[in-house]
Amino acid sequence: MNGHVKITVLAGGVGGARFLRGLRTHLRTRYPNGDGGSTAEITAVVNTGDDMWLTGLRVCPDLDSIMYTLGGANDDERGWGRKDESERVSAELTAYGIGWPWFTLGDLDLGTHIARSAFLRDGLTLTEATARLAERWNPGVRLLPMSDQPVETHVDIQVDGKRRIVHFEEWWVKHRATVPAQRFIQVGVDAARPSPAVLQAIAQADVILVAPSNPVVSIGTILGVPTLRQALLAARAPIVGVSPIIAGAAVRGMADACLTAIGVETTAVAVGKHYGARHRGGILDAWLVDETDAASVPVLEAAGLRAHAVPLWMRDPATSAQLAADALAAAIA
Ligand code: GDP
Ligand code: CA
Fold first, then answer.
1. Does residue 251's CB lie within 6 angstroms of at least one atom of ligand 1?
2. How far is the C-alpha of 6 from the C-alpha of 282, rounded, in Å?
3. Is the pTM of this model over 0.90?
């Protein structure tokens, strides 16, 4: 691929952030400045289903995970939030009895939410507010919320014999996804549309990648935005997905609990089939599974999905960059 290459990535939080960091590393090596004029541009279409108003502030967990990771400010040990964080304000909020005591908002992180909320109050769209926040972090990736309209994932659960509908983060963080989910509800989805920037990023892309993110509450939420799926079907770019499931397990986190709730097995084959081949109305032209899942390649191909087995563990910058390179190679294979 030469000239100016446009790559669009559908992404959730942590898996999305690691993948985007690897893609950025790979492209910087492949197209160093001055290399025959070839350049590459990455746009991330990010899940906003985990967003919420908390303590009067708009919190966007997946956008922030990506922004902090690409900006070098992520707490890599914990996996989320800012490094060198403190929690003085959070203790004050708890003393006033507001917020969710189980959902920590660090002091530095609160700065982001205050700035975002100020931009939104000034009338900026979430897309514009995200761009303003990202200016400071120089992420090297254009960050686009999947929609400017709020869409919040809620979960239908049973707690102590009572049916409750809670925000996704309550199920995920407070209950650690141990209470079985009956179903996921995308509150506000009917009124939501992909932003013009998202539609353009899909239509004009040379390659579209689906990051190894949660297939249900990250990628599934993005695909649930009305007309977004059709935009992918109509895109001229090849679409390559990377499995977030390796050897029958979610690599980091609890994605299996989400898959179980929608009746999809926690295997790379089942998730690949769930996304489906584009020529059969799905969203994928190719699907990457881990090398330990190589036996599933013929099974997927029999289901009409081109599949490749490559190492999918993003252990460090080098393995993440290699995974990005393999995904791009699959796009032109
Ligand atoms: P969240 O929004 O923070 O939950 O993050 P994402 O939706 O982006 O992705 C979470 C999923 O990424 C996890 O459930 C894993 O299945 C997947 N994941 C995390 N690390 C890796 C990795 O190193 N390799 C692969 N293939 N998948 C990963
Ligand atoms: Ca998330």
1. yes
2. 22
3. yes
| 240, 310: one domain | yes
- In short, whether 127's Cβ falls inside 6 Å of ligand 1 is no
**Residue 59: which domain range?**
51-139
Give residue-wise pLDDT tens across range 279-302: 999 999 999 999 999 999 999 999
The atom number, within ligand 1, closest to the CA of 312 reads: 26
Handedness of CA 92, 72, 220, 161 (dihedral sign): negative
Question: In this structure, are 278 and 295 located in the same domain?
Answer: yes
Residue 309: strand pairing partners: 289
Cα-based distances in Å from 140 to 37, 42, 66, 69: 18, 8, 11, 11
> d(Cα 74, Cα 66) in Å, to the nearest integer?
9
For residue 311, give both structure tokens: 């190492």
Residues 6+ apart with CB under 8 A from 46: 11, 12, 16, 62, 63, 66, 143, 144, 145, 146, 222
